[in-house]
Design a protein that fits this description.
Elements (H helix, E strand, L loop, with lengths): L17 E4 L3 E7 L5 E7 L6 E6 L2 E3 L2 E7 L6 E7 L2 E2 L4 E2 L14 E2 L33 E3 L22 E4 L19 H4 L2 H10 L3 E4 L9 H4 L28 H12 L3 E6 L16 H9 L2 E2 L2 E5 L14 H17 L4 E4 L2 H4 L1 E2 L2 E2 L4 H8 L7 E4 L18 E4 L1 H12 L5 H8 L3 H4 L9 E3 L9 H4 L35 H20 L3 E5 L26 H5 L1 H19 L14 E3 L2 E2 L1 E4 L8 H4 L6 E8 L16 E8 L5 E4 L7 E6 L11 E2 L3 E4 L3 E6 L8
Parallel strand pairs: 12-13, 12-23, 13-14, 14-17, 17-20, 20-21, 21-22, 22-23
Antiparallel strand pairs: 1-2, 2-6, 3-4, 3-7, 5-6, 7-11, 8-9, 10-11, 15-16, 18-19, 24-25, 26-27, 27-28, 28-33, 29-32, 30-31, 30-33
């Protein structure tokens, strides 16, 4: 279709923000409280040639707007903003720089690194106080007007209760780049994400919720490209509304929509990892791409009295100003767009402490949180916080609003350290296994608020945790200065790969033991993609720039005998979790509630079935623990004929020592069925009741018993 553009703009409307087609034309609206003029620049379909430049004719409540009649979706555009260039006062207007609409729904083209992208002369003695007059349009991506999503029949969401949620963290590109059965041009894109083989794999694992690493359009930083590396993770957002163009195999936004619907049809939710705490523009020395040029002083948090510089609570050069109502509106509009246009089921907020920080410090009742909690759409979705940043008072684990779940790094570190042989960890380990009530048991929160994980995208994979004592990030080219140093890992005798069968067996046992803690501890379990079949990053614990087989999931590992065994093991864990409600974290267990006379909701014993004393909790070298949880049975499961209703009693025998240990059952009168044993590659056990008063638990392993067999099939 030939696009017709007249020579003038009508007044249009200040709402909604962004570019919206109404059937007869397109309305443009963009916020800038300090601009003196904003121009709409229209390009040809390729985005290479500017064909029209029109001034937005009206400004209402600091929103500049105009209406272009007889224009249809597909129009390619950008903005130029006029105003003071006074960096000392926080103003960085430069109309020579083409600016991306913060509300852009789709992009054409990509950033091409050139000095013209910067608002100042890069090599000037005045630095960013100088002014650059070169046009940046040729080096900039442009926004594309898209067709509005028609309001019609919605596909039903799975709406998995938090207590039954099992999260799988995955990367859109990494999950399919090395998968057979995927068309070459679809690998690494949304088109491959909803592949039936992948969905079947998730169902076998018992996954209920996929959490995707950032899919918002992001920047390929020049310093990485110069080292032949790429921004793989995507935590460098260029646009809050547009999907990353590289994830669209054909450029059609329906690819993501269809992938989500495939997941929903299988009963699996989709959560997005979102980055609203900073943008890709970096510090005051970074490029002028969008919000910096539109209204730097309002979109970003600047140092009071030194407005030339940014507050850098994120460690990424700048911090988005979540104290400004228009910026809060931008973020909420973005979240709502993804939820409504793509049926997204929830969001994991990167550096969420930043979003809740007011000028006085972090506040769980901040403007952003208040707005989010009352939003009729967003407040009904799953919300997850990464509860830390590097700003003042940035570590806020347990302090986010009750609607949130939070990534629990204390669980991660305690479980890693316990199984790696750390001393004096009995009490810490026990607290983390019971949902970290010291952190979350307030404001009527539930144990599911603790997202329990051993590994995530940031750090070692599960396999590498048992294969490397130290990080091996040589491929990143940063002289080992990147990535965590405190990993609580152990190589069990050899650094890296080995053919020693004894070491391989021990490593696999420790992996299974840690997975057992993740899935059967109180809280919401999260699994990193590939950890279910021994994925390795060769010791790299910060693979953010490795868009290659270091980061990609190698599905050949899943087809191996060892991979299949671990997949089956994870499936057994999730089946046990589903079948025993006491493991689902619906309420905190404190040992102050009797299920039956003499049977508390939770009890801790040593290996001799003796209750652990205060002195025993402090024993630095004790490696054995027995956890007994009791609660109502599974009302959804059919009770076999002739079997009386009874409360569920689940026992976990933990042996983190170097030798086998004999464990005694605390309640000899109960039946004891072995549900899973981490010393067995696939965890498979007999369904017959144990007839002895004690059992031997192998070194570095866990055995889980219950007073009935598991009725769920893994």
């Amino acid at each position: 279709m030939t696009l017709v553009t007249p020579r003038h703009l009508q007044a249009g409307s200040p709402y909604p923000l962004g570019a919206h087609f109404d059937g007869l034309g397109v309305n443009f609206a963009v916020f800038s409280g300090n601009a003196t003029k904003i121009e709409l620049c229209i390009f040809d379909a390729t985005g290479r040639r500017e064909v029209e430049r029109l001034t937005l004719p009206e400004c209402t409540d600091e929103v500049w707007h105009g209406y272009l009649p007889d224009t249809s979706p597909g129009l390619v555009y950008g903005y130029r903003a006029y105003g003071p260039y006074e960096p000392q006062k926080g103003h960085r207007f430069n109309p020579n720089k083409l600016l991306l609409d913060p509300y852009a729904r789709q992009l054409v083209g990509q950033v091409r690194w050139t000095d013209a992208l910067f608002g100042y002369r890069l090599h000037s003695a005045k630095g960013d106080l100088s002014f650059d007059r070169r046009d940046s349009a040729a080096a900039m991506p442009k926004a594309v007007v898209v067709e509005e999503i028609p309001i019609g029949k919605k596909f039903p969401r799975p709406r998995v209760p938090w207590s039954k949620t099992v999260i799988y963290e995955a990367h859109v590109r990494g999950i399919s780049m090395m998968r057979d059965g995927v068309m070459p041009h679809e690998r690494g894109t949304f088109a491959a994400l909803g592949h039936p083989d992948f969905i079947a794999h998730l169902q076998k694992l018992g996954v209920t919720t996929v959490e995707l690493m950032p899919v918002h359009a992001f920047l390929q930083e020049n310093f990485l490209l110069q080292r032949d590396l790429r921004n793989y993770w995507g935590y460098s957002t260029l646009g809050f509304f547009a999907p990353e163009p590289a994830y669209l195999s054909t450029g059609d936004l329906n690819e993501l929509r269809m992938a989500v619907r495939h997941f929903h049809a299988a009963g699996i939710e989709v959560i997005l990892d979102v980055v609203y705490n900073h943008t890709c523009s970096g510090s005051e020395l970074g490029p002028t791409l969008s919000m910096r040029g539109l209204d730097n002083a309002n979109y970003y948090r600047l140092l009071p009295g030194e407005e030339r510089y940014y507050i850098n609570d994120t460690g990424c050069g700048n911090t988005v100003n979540m104290s400004h109502p228009r910026v809060i509106q931008l973020v909420l509009d973005s979240l709502r767009y993804w939820a409504e246009a793509f049926d997204i089921d929830g969001f994991r907020f990167d550096l969420c402490s930043t979003l809740g920080r007011e000028p006085t410090g972090f506040d769980p009742n901040s403007g952003f949180f208040d707005a989010l909690m009352q939003d009729p759409v967003l407040s009904q979705l799953k919300l997850i916080a990464e509860p830390w940043d590097i700003g003042p008072g940035g570590y806020q684990l347990g302090n986010h609003p009750p609607r949130f779940a939070e990534w629990n790094d204390k669980f991660r570190d305690a479980v890693r350290h316990f199984w790696a042989g750390g001393e004096g960890l009995r009490g810490e380990f026990a607290g983390r296994m019971l949902g970290s009530s010291d952190l979350f048991d307030h404001h009527h929160r539930k144990p599911w608020a603790s997202v329990n994980f051993i590994a995530s995208h940031d750090g070692f994979t599960l396999r590498d945790l048992v294969s490397y004592e130290t990080k091996h990030n040589e491929a990143n080219g940063e002289n080992g200065n990147d990535g965590h140093n405190e990993n609580y890992s152990a190589n069990w005798g050899v650094e890296g790969p080995t053919d020693d069968p004894a070491i391989l067996q021990l490593r696999a046992t420790v992996q299974r033991s840690m997975l057992t803690c993740v899935f059967l501890g109180q809280g919401t379990p999260m699994l990193l993609a590939g950890d279910e079949f021994h994925r390795t990053q060769r010791g790299n614990n910060n693979a953010y720039c490795q868009d290659n087989d270091i980061s990609w999931v190698d599905w050949k590992d899943a087809a191996s005998e060892e991979g299949q065994a671990l997949i089956s093991y994870v499936g057994r864990l999730t089946a046990i979790r589903r079948d025993f409600p006491v493991l689902q974290g619906d309420r905190f267990l404190h040992g102050n509630r009797e299920i039956l006379p003499g049977l508390k909701d939770v009890s801790w014993f040593d290996e001799r079935a003796t209750p652990i004393s205060i002195e025993d909790w402090q024993n630095p070298v004790a490696r054995a623990l027995t956890l007994q949880c009791a609660g109502a049975g599974n009302v959804d499961a059919a009770v076999p004929e002739g079997e009386a209703e009874q409360p569920d009693i689940v026992l976990m025998f933990f042996n983190a020592g170097h030798e086998p240990i004999e464990f005694t059952f605390p309640r000899a009168e109960d039946a004891h069925y072995l549900l899973i044993d981490s010393n067995i590659p696939d965890g498979a056990v007999s369904r017959e009741a144990c007839t002895t008063a004690s059992v031997e638990v192998a070194a570095h392993s866990v055995q889980v018993f219950a007073n009935r067999p598991c009725r769920e099939k893994s």
